[in-house]
Design goal:
The complex is a heterodimer of chains A (156) and B (958).
Chain A (H helix, E strand, L loop, with lengths): L1 E8 L4 E6 L5 H16 L8 E3 L9 E8 L2 E8 L4 H19 L4 H6 L1 H11 E2 L2 E2 L4 H22 L1
Antiparallel strand pairs in A: 1-2, 1-5, 3-4, 4-5, 6-7
Chain B lengths: L2 H20 L6 H16 L8 H8 L4 H13 L5 H16 L3 H14 L2 H7 L3 H6 L5 H17 L9 H7 L6 H17 L7 H14 L9 E2 L2 E2 L1 H11 L8 H19 L7 H21 L3 H15 L4 H14 L6 H5 L2 H10 L3 H14 L5 H14 L2 H17 L4 H15 L5 H13 L1 H15 L6 H14 L11 H12 L4 H17 L4 H9 L1 H4 L4 H16 L2 H7 L12 H10 L2 H11 L1 H8 L5 H4 L4 H10 L7 H14 L14 H7 L8 H5 L31 E5 L3 E10 L2 E10 L5 E9 L8 E6 L15 E10 L8 E8 L2 E8 L8 E3 L4 H10 L6 E7 L6 H11 L2 E2 L10 E8 L4 E11 L4 E8 L2 H12 L3
Antiparallel strand pairs in B: 1-2, 3-4, 4-5, 5-8, 6-9, 7-8, 9-10, 11-14, 12-16, 13-14, 14-15, 15-16
Helix pairs in contact in B: 1-2, 2-4, 3-4, 3-5, 4-6, 5-6, 6-9, 9-11, 11-13, 12-13, 12-14, 13-15, 14-15, 14-16, 15-17, 16-17, 17-20, 19-20, 21-22, 21-23, 22-23, 22-33, 23-24, 23-25, 24-26, 25-26, 26-28, 27-28, 28-31, 29-31, 37-38
Classes of the chains: A alpha+beta (156), B alpha+beta (958).
GO molecular function, one term (chain B): clathrin adaptor activity
Keywords (chain B): Cell membrane, Coated pit, Endocytosis, Membrane, Protein transport, Transport
Subcellular location (chain B): Cell membrane; Membrane, Coated pit
Chain lengths: 156, 958
């Protein structure tokens, strides 16, 4: 199961934070900070897995992360997930964002935070992998966009 | 942009949104959406959001998709436990689930899964299986329903009823839609852990599904083909599911599966279809899962060896991820008898990885693998490589490496001189990381094996010659020379006076614990080498010992000195005889390593245990004036030895402790435990139950459960007074269990997180913490155990693990006694029970109230009936520090009012106690008198019992 999905930029500013296990707010923020420091000090071309921090998990948990340009995507998962599978899932998520926003960049995550959440919800639900087929995900998002448009006109 | 500017900006925005929400003008859907979205963003930036939930509930109840969507999103990110709100949300979810609109149904299912609380489970767990297997449900709804059910099952398995739907879930494995199959496999993998027989039919379905994917050309599965790999996630999940079962019994199914596994292994050798890393990732994800399944079956030697060779290739791969995973998989492969030898052939590669990998995660895996592949044939090589690595190892993993080296050295020692050398090397290289368990163990082994004692004495003597040696070396050296120094005394280079002056040259640089140990060594020297008696007595007599500020050292010096001058040589020889052998048992180091492997939280407990001061408390070294001045220790000793009283009265028990301590475990009395330090003792040698030591050292294995630990209905332990003013901390701790608490209170509601840490290396069984409301307390305060969404408090708590429990509390009316927490479990077969008072006192529901001086006095006068006032005059138990007092009063919950009392030394406070039934206004005044070291505390509230109760609670604090 995925405990948490954290996206932050190279300076540790959170851009997307989703917890699938309840933590009090201040612990959530500590986890984000701790994770950032754990990930930041690692070189770019070493492995994408590291043993979890002290706040989240323990030895059964791993942080699996990828670094794209200005953003780190970190998934905190337990041993029931395949490491490489999650690594690919991050890729699917990012490629989907890229399709939906046409060349996604950090600003898209800030200005379309709700959209980003909706896209994530099509990929991961309650900490479980929901859908891995990019076309399916994009189709869902497009359907949402159509609904949004039709409602917008209704208000007209 | 500075931090302050950001906070200012955000506060302004929050105020703006708040006023919009509160405004008279009804907001249209668009603005509501906009503001709710803004709140989400502010929350993301790390600011608390305590409003907007109501607006979100309005949105999610709307008929418009976009409004519903953001409403649900807000609620799933910012879950709130307000019961009224949850009722509204559940209502909306219910409507959406019944709406037959698949988009709405999916949103509702997402929300249930994302919140995943027990309350959600109670409301919906029964409905979801129906939606999942209904013939007319859309694929996307089925997919969401499967995962939603999985999430609820993980959070509260008892809420999900098994039934005829389970058979139909298995058949979802045949579904057309790959997304549905993937979700169903996840669900079944979890459900079948508890009910393997109910889901047994899934094996053949999973195998045939897998076989179709593996043998398909990459284009057959179109959209589910990821970078030329057909359905990698589904394959991985199917392989995981199969790992829940033993190899298929049906020969045809098994044949088909083996074929699949071989195909995957074959494909690994084919040239890649794409250069992209995604392609190889997906392919290897399947490969690693295949290897895990092969290892899990552990029955196909041919496949195991192929798997091992494949991993061997990965060990040299240029992708760091693959090297990491290969080392990790090989670790499990090493324990299979079929592949152990094959794994061993990679030893040089692994050692090389340990030396040259740039990534600490990978080096750690290499160290683990070396540990796993070690056996008698390669132990010397592996241990020496690990020792060499230790010199440059990352600090974070040094301790673990030290433990592993110590275990391997012991396990595979052919001659024990090698073992002794290895441990001394460990101390030399990484002394700071050598925990007590490690050096205790070397002493145990040296004591038990007389063939190595002379060598050990010689080696430590040489090691101590180094100008700077680690304190742990002094401890080991001091202990061994005290026992076996005579074996090397014949050599003039290590004659008794030389040994003594060598040890004593280190004495002044050592910590108290080590100095205490050295004093015991000295008294042993007096017995071993009578010629050193005068010198040693001189040392003991020195003012720096006899009047040492540390009671432990002072006590030892006084008593050793008296012993050496009062006791005859015979008595001395008996008392100070060489230690008897230790009984064989599982290495305490192994236990420690297992504990270390537990969840990270447990390491905090470990730290606590290692802390010397807490050892002192555990060890019960509590020298009272009477024991220090025991006039004739030897007389007492003899009495004690003649007839150890089964339950010594406290006074003589105290003396017993002291004497055991002093006389360093006489051989005639092995049950008294042989070592100078109680902590040491409780690690090595749990005394027999009848020993008076049990009262003091409180050994770990339930030899003599302490007073707090008799099974049955123990009386509740008193609430530590500090919890009146504090919400967080360690509520309870003994040798087995630590209970930490974190709580927050708002208005008349509270939420408490309880953390149960298993401090042992053994699993607790039937672990059940429950809340008890004695008397009619339930009518005053409602507290129920809510389960956090993912982790129910499991019936088992693994050694070293920590589990969490959430308690929701509602104060209905004022109350006097806190609710009780009753914890029961079995430890090593013995039932354990304890009852604690929960740190819920009436003052937790204080809401501080600010008021001006005149208001205060007016109200003070209004509460002038005699029964409304409670007053106490008491002596200060703590130093009278105004700042500390202030902090305590604030922690107590009331507001502190400045410039009210004409005397600035006094403290005045006001607050309202919030209960559901009524509010109780409280005023308080605390007048310290520094000369007399006294306080006068006055409370006035509108309810008589509350005044008295608050007064009592607060008075304990100063």
């Amino acid at each position: 199961m995925i405990q948490a999905i954290l996206v932050f930029n190279n300076h540790g500013k959170p851009r997307l934070v989703r917890f699938y296990q309840r933590f009090p707010e201040e612990i959530q923020q500590q986890i984000v900070r701790e994770t950032f420091h754990l990930v930041l000090k690692r070189d770019d071309n070493i492995c994408n897995f590291l043993e979890g921090g002290s706040l989240i998990g323990g030895s059964d948990y791993k942080l699996i992360y990828r670094h794209y340009a200005t953003l780190y995507f970190v998934f905190c998962v337990d041993s029931s997930e395949s490491e490489l599978g999650i690594l690919d899932l991050i890729q699917v998520f990012v490629e989907t964002l890229d399709k939906c926003f046409e060349n996604v960049c950090e600003l898209d995550l800030i200005f379309h935070m709700d959209k980003v959440h909706y896209i994530l919800q099509e990929v991961v639900m309650g900490g479980m992998v929901l859908e891995t087929n990019m076309n399916e995900i994009v189709a869902q998002i497009e359907a949402q966009n159509r609904l949004e448009k039709s409602e917008g006109q209704g208000l007209g | 942009k500075s931090k302050e500017a950001e906070i200012k900006r955000i506060n302004k925005e929050l105020a703006n949104i708040r006023s919009k929400f509160k405004g008279d003008k009804a907001l249209d859907g668009y603005s509501k959406k906009k503001y709710v979205c803004k709140l989400l963003f502010i929350f993301l930036l790390g600011h608390d959001i305590d409003f907007g939930h109501m607006e979100a509930v309005n949105l999610l109840s709307s008929n418009k998709y976009t409004e519903k969507q953001i409403g649900y999103l807000f609620i799933s990110v910012l879950v709130n436990s307000n019961s009224e709100l949850i009722r509204l949300i559940n209502n909306a979810i219910k409507n959406d689930l019944a709406s037959r609109n698949p988009t709405f149904m999916c949103l509702a299912l997402h929300c249930i899964a994302n919140v995943g609380s027990r309350e959600m489970g109670e409301a919906f767990a029964a409905d979801i299986p129906r939606i999942l297997v209904a013939g007319d449900s859309m694929d996307s709804v089925k997919q969401s329903a499967a995962l939603c059910l999985l999430r609820l099952y993980k959070a509260s398995p008892d809420l999900v009823p098994m039934g005829e739907w389970t058979a139909r879930v298995v058949h979802l494995l045949n579904d057309q839609h790959m997304g549905v199959v993937t979700a169903a496999v996840s669900l079944i993998t979890c459900l079948c852990k508890k009910n393997p027989d109910d889901f047994k039919t899934c094996i053949s379905l999973a195998v045939s599904r897998l076989s179709r994917i593996v043998s398909s050309a990459s284009t057959d599965l179109q959209d589910y083909t990821y970078y030329f790999v057909p359905a990698p996630w589904l394959s991985v999940k199917l392989l995981r599911l199969l790992q829940s079962y033993p190899p298929p019994e049906d020969a045809a199914v098994k044949g088909r599966l083996v074929e699949c596994l071989e195909t995957v292994l074959n494909k690994a050798q084919e040239p890649p279809k794409s250069k992209k890393v995604q392609h190889s990732n997906a392919k290897n994800a399947i490969l690693f899962e295949t290897i895990s399944l092969i290892i899990h079956y552990d029955s196909e030697p041919n496949l195991l060896v192929r798997a091992c060779n494949q991993l061997g290739q990965f060990l040299q791969h240029r992708e760091t991820n693959l090297r990491y995973l290969a080392l990790e998989s090989m670790c499990t492969l090493a324990s299979s008898e079929f592949s152990h030898e094959a794994v061993k052939t990679h030893i040089d590669t692994v050692i090389n990885a340990l030396k040259t990998e740039r990534d600490v995660s990978v080096r750690q895996r290499a160290a683990d693998l070396l540990y796993a592949m070690c056996d008698r044939s390669n132990a010397k090589q592996i241990v020496s490589e690990m020792l060499r690595y230790l010199e440059t190892a990352d600090y974070a993993i040094r301790e673990e490496i030290v433990l592993k080296v110590a275990i391997l050295a012991e396990k595979y020692a052919v001659d024990y001189s090698w073992y002794v050398d290895t441990i001394l090397n460990l101390i030399r290289i990484a002394g700071d990381y050598v925990s007590e368990e490690v050096w205790y163990r070397v002493l145990q082994i040296v004591t038990n094996r007389d063939d190595v004692q002379g060598y050990a004495a010689k080696t430590v003597f040489e090691a101590l010659q180094a100008p700077a040696c680690h304190e742990n070396m002094v401890k080991v050296g001091g202990y061994i020379l005290g026992e076996f120094g005579n074996l090397i005394a014949g050599d003039p280079r290590s004659s008794p006076p030389v040994q003594f002056s060598l040890l004593h040259s280190k004495f002044h640089l050592c910590s108290v614990a080590t100095r205490a140990l050295l004093l015991s060594t000295y008294i042993k020297f007096i017995n071993l080498f009578p010629e050193t008696k005068a010198t040693i007595q001189g040392v003991l007599r020195a003012g720096s010992q006899l009047r040492n500020a540390d009671v432990e050292l002072q006590q030892r010096a006084v008593e050793y000195l008296t012993l050496s001058s009062v006791a005859s040589t015979d008595v001395l020889a008996t008392v100070l005889e060489e230690m008897p052998p230790f009984p064989e048992r599982e290495s305490s180091i192994l236990a420690k390593l297992k504990r270390k492997k537990g969840p990270g939280a447990a390491s905090a407990l470990d730290d606590g245990r290692r802390d010397p001061s807490s050892n002192d408390i555990n060890g019960g070294v509590e020298p009272t004036p009477s024991t220090v001045s025991t006039p004739s220790p030897s007389a007492d000793l003899l009495g004690l030895r003649a007839a150890p009283p089964p339950a010594a009265p406290p006074a003589s028990a105290g003396a017993g402790n002291l004497l055991v301590d002093v006389f360093d475990g006489p051989a005639a009395q092995p049950s008294l435990g042989p070592t100078p330090e109680e902590a040491f003792l409780s690690e090595l040698e749990p005394p027999a139950p009848e020993s008076p030591m049990a009262l003091l050292a409180d050994p770990v294995p339930a030899a003599e459960p302490g007073a707090d630990w008799h099974p049955g209905h123990p009386a509740p332990l008193p609430l530590p007074p500090r919890f009146v003013c504090k919400n967080n901390g360690v509520l309870f701790e003994n040798q087995l269990l630590q209970i930490g608490v974190k709580s927050e209170f708002r208005q008349n509601l509270g939420r408490m997180y309880l953390f149960y840490g298993n401090k042992t290396s053994v699993q607790f069984q039937n672990f059940s913490p429950t809340v008890v409301h004695p008397g009619d307390l339930q009518t005053h305060i409602l507290s129920g155990l809510g389960q956090p969404p993912t982790k129910r408090v499991a019936a088992q708590v693994d050694g070293g693990a920590q589990v969490q429990q959430v308690l929701n509390i509602e104060c209905l009316r004022d109350f006097l006694t806190p609710p009780l927490l009753s914890v029961r479990f079995r430890y090593g077969g013995a039932p354990q029970a304890l009852t604690l008072k929960l740190p819920v006192t009436i003052n937790k529901f204080f809401q501080p109230t600010e008021m001006a001086a005149q208001d205060f006095f007016q109200r003070w006068k209004q509460l002038s009936l005699p029964q409304q006032e409670a007053q106490k005059i008491f002596k200060a138990n703590h130093p009278m520090d105004a700042e500390v007092t202030k902090a305590k009063l604030l922690g107590f919950g009331s507001a502190l009012l400045d410039n009210v009392d004409p005397n600035p030394e006094n403290f005045v406070g006001a607050g309202i106690i919030q209960t559901k039934a009524l509010q109780v206004g409280c005023l308080l005044r605390l007048e310290p008198n520094a000369q007399a070291q006294m306080y006068r505390l006055t409370l006035r509230t509108s309810k008589e019992p509350v005044s008295r109760h608050l007064c009592e609670l607060l008075a304990q604090q100063f």
